[in-house]
Amino acid sequence: MSDRYPGYDVLAKRDGLSWNDKTREVVGRRLAVGIDDHRFFDEAEWGVLRALCDRILPQPPERERPVPVAALLDLRLREGPGDGNRDVALPPTDVAWKRALAALDAESRQAQGRGFPDLTPAEQDALLRDMQEGRLAGPAWQGMAPKTFFSARLLYDLVGLYYAHPAAWSEIGFGGPASPRGYVRMGFDGRDPWEAAEAAPGREDAARRENRHVR
Where are the residues of the annotated region Disordered (predicted)? Predict the structure, then answer.
């Protein structure tokens, strides 16, 4: 639940007519992934990945069940199909991730004398910014461009996995899969009764309701 959509929990639809058995099965698999579940990454890689996820997608400390982003990535790389395409500048996804985590930790040790998980949040952010802006070039990257990995793999994978989880759906007021229910009120600014109601609509939304322009 979120302050923006108070009282809204997308899982309340789970056993109703909104979802079918296939939808329940798919969502159930995501919910079954534990925060520490990993078999693809070794312990050193896992520590770097967990720290990385905490900086890219910090979650509310009061959240009872955080979205297990790192564990979902581990599961995808261990069992799931690939994207069907990739940037020609990057190796296969599983290879790219292992190489990037090792390289990020090596860059951290070179710059700070400590592994990436042991850096302060500010130091981690600074190193990630260097990665994003292409200022890292250590030998552990083995010719893979850190900047390309950051934009084409790191953000794509982690953010995608986060927003594929029901906890994130409730946070943004997303109604979940549309099958088999579909949508009824398809007009501009329409909201079906089963969709989340925003607690304090933004200025633009209020202006639309008043049928006037926002300046």
Answer: 194-215
pLDDT at 94 over 60: yes
Has residue 38 been placed in a domain? yes
Would residue 112 count as lying in a domain? yes
One DSSP character per residue, the chain reads: --SSSTT--GGGGTTSTTB-HHHHHHHHHHHT--TT--SSS-HHHHHHHHHHHHHHS---TT-SS---HHHHHHHHHHHS---S---TTS--HHHHHHHHHHHHHHHHHHHHSS-GGGS-HHHHHHHHHHHHTT----GGGTT--HHHHIIIIIHHHHHHHHTTSHHHHHHHT-----TBT--S--STT---TTSPPPSS--HHHHHHHTT----
Average confidence (pLDDT) over 13-40 = 92
Report yes or no on 88 lying in a domain. yes
Domain count, the chain: 1
Which domain, by its residues, includes 109? 10-172
For the purposes of burial, counting CB atoms within 10 Å of the CB of 148, is it exposed (0-12), middle (13-18) or buried (19 or more)?
Answer: middle
Q: What is the pTM of this model?
A: 0.86
